[in-house]
Specification:
It is built from 23 helices and 6 strands. With about 550 residues, it is mostly helical.
Length: about 550
């Protein structure tokens, strides 16, 4: 392949040059497995968004195939995800399904432009407290939409806001169904137990099968997909170009930007997770182009917006996927199920899908990040809390906008606080001697990297160069933080990820010389405990002494 083509070549083309029967065997098992997992999720996301269940399946089939065939990740799985549920429901409520299709295609064009213009790395400028805040908020909103279905409550009012939805559930609480609660609770228990005890078997598949069979065998009076939607049509619909209303363009720009940004963020986050699990490195610009093409085509089959799906991508990798062929097989598996088992899929109880979405919302919530965030600076907590509350009580667009403005203001404040003017004294010179590298022998088993300047969101991707050359690094890697003037939650997390990557490769990571502001943030967030307090040194002299001890232990 010509060298000039490589930067824009999809991973499928690069992977298939050396494809063989062994790779196909691994991809086949993984593709079928993740295809079965995607079936209930596709239906559940579509229903929660206010669409028919087949819209989710159509989206998973078409976009799943396109994203794998054209994308920049070897093992990422694309399709409808929980992140879009709240946004899609809001767009449908205001502009109808035609407005959603138009908005999705606009977002597709935006994603293609982001990829073509090389803006695939621009997502790094969204700080971690904002991402965690709206992820937490979306998880709460998804769970709130499923409470009435789980309980079997008949809510007749058309409620869209969180507080109104909870009030409606409370008003109709006396109409709950013991059959629906039993099926939902049983399905929830099965998912949690199977995922905990038999990780090789997807709990959603087991819960879907057992819950549906139990409801049918016992003839339980529960609402099913067929009773609510009239069943699933067999096969894909004919391609059609959605109606385009020029009058709606300006009104749909804001929600289209939200869909595009959500799609970019989640797909690239999912690709990073895939890289970490598979040892590969994705191409962000090619990935965004694939996401854009997928979102252009999805409305033509009546589908939802699509992006990279973190949980399905992880399932794909754990099931043995090696190349993008696994993602294409996952799409074909869904198509076969739709052609052969549409009638059977109509018997799935709605309470089972509600329990699946409860688990999805919990898993996507990133709840374990909150305690770490709270222990860090109050500024990061404010950004997170504002984004979270606005996501739940207002809407996602407002939440991200406010979160970004707050983060930008705090960024300016942090950078300005790093500017100091002080007199050079004899004590200052003596104090700095333990930090300088001049005339200090660096042993061959040690590599030293320095972090220079504010290590805040938007700059943290520079640390990935360490992992890019990990195979050439010696056993001990020291990060000299003497000139790192400031850090935030995103920066702390980036350093932790590098430390985890080095540790996974059998190497040790040491950190030294942090100034007061960064050191306080890292200490309060528990960074030193996670990397090992002995590996968090005061200066480079101490780090070199620690490196000798670590290296001797490695040799023993």
């Amino acid at each position: 392949m010509p060298r000039s083509v490589s930067p824009w070549a999809p991973k499928s083309i690069l992977s298939f040059r050396d494809y063989n029967r062994s790779l196909l065997r691994h991809d086949l098992v993984a593709g079928v497995t993740v295809g079965l997992v995607a079936l209930p999720l596709g239906m559940a996301f579509a229903i929660a968004s206010g669409l028919s269940p087949q819209s989710g399946i159509y989206c998973a089939i078409v976009t799943g195939f396109i994203i794998s065939a054209l994308g920049g990740s070897r093992v990422q799985i694309g399709g409808p995800t929980g992140a879009f549920v709240v946004v899609v429901a809001g767009i449908i409520g205001q502009y109808g399904v035609p407005g959603l299709f138009m908005c999705t295609m606009m977002a597709g064009v935006m994603l293609i432009l982001l990829g073509v213009t090389g803006m695939g790395s621009a997502v790094k400028f969204i700080p971690r407290p904002v991402i965690i805040g709206f992820t937490n908020g979306i998880a709460v909103l998804i769970a709130s939409t499923q409470i009435s279905t789980f309980l079997g409550i008949s809510v007749t009012e058309n409620v869209g806001e969180f507080l109104e939805r909870m009030a409606a559930v409370w008003r109709h609480l006396d109409t709950w169904s013991i059959a629906s609660v039993s099926v939902g609770t049983g399905s929830l228990a099965i998912i949690l137990l199977v995922n905990r005890l038999w990780r090789a078997v997807p709990g959603t598949i087991v819960a879907l099968t057992v819950g549906t069979f139990a409801a049918w065998a016992l003839d339980l009076p529960v609402e099913t997909i067929a009773s609510r939607f009239g069943g699933l049509p067999s096969g894909l619909p004919a391609l059609h170009i959605p109606a385009f209303d020029p009058m709606l363009i300006t009104k749909l720009i804001s929600p289209a930007v939200t869909i595009a940004m959500l799609g970019a963020i989640e797909s690239l986050m999912s690709a990073v997770v895939a890289d970490r699990m598979s040892g590969d490195r994705h191409n962000p610009n090619v990935e965004l182009i694939a996401q854009g093409v997928a979102n252009l085509v999805s409305p033509m089959v009546g589908g939802l917006p699509a992006t990279g799906a973190i949980a399905r991508t992880a399932t794909n990798i754990r099931s043995g996927a090696k190349t993008p062929m696994a993602g294409m097989i996952h799409a074909v598996t869904l198509l076969v199920v739709l052609l052969a088992g549409a009638e059977l899929a109509g018997t799935v109880p709605m309470a089972v899908l509600a329990s699946i979405l409860f688990v999805v919302s919990w898993n996507m919530g990133e709840w374990h990040e909150i305690p770490e965030l709270i222990r860090q600076s109050k500024a990061d907590v404010v950004v997170w809390a504002a984004t979270f509350l606005l996501t739940v009580l207002a809407d996602l667009t407002v939440a991200v906008e406010v979160g970004m403005v707050l983060a930008a203001l705090l960024f300016i404040r942090r950078v300005s606080n790093t500017t100091t003017v002080s007199r050079v004294t004899e004590h200052y010179v003596d104090e700095g001697r333990v930090h300088v590298l001049q005339n200090k022998p660096i042993p061959p088993y040690v590599a030293i990297f320095r972090v220079h300047g504010p290590f805040l969101f938007g700059a943290t991707d520079k640390i990935t160069q360490v992992l890019d050359q990990i195979d050439q690094l010696p056993p001990v890697v020291i990060f000299r933080l003497r000139n790192m003037t400031a850090i935030d939650a995103t920066g702390v997390r980036a350093l932790e990820e590098v430390a985890e990557g080095l540790h996974a490769s059998g190497r040790a990571a040491l950190f030294c010389g942090a100034l007061p502001q960064p050191r306080a943030i890292m200490e309060s967030g528990g960074f030193s405990e996670r990397v090992g307090r002995d590996n968090f040194c005061l200066h480079v002299d101490a780090a070199l002494e620690r490196a000798q001890v670590v290296h001797e232990k490695m040799r023993d």
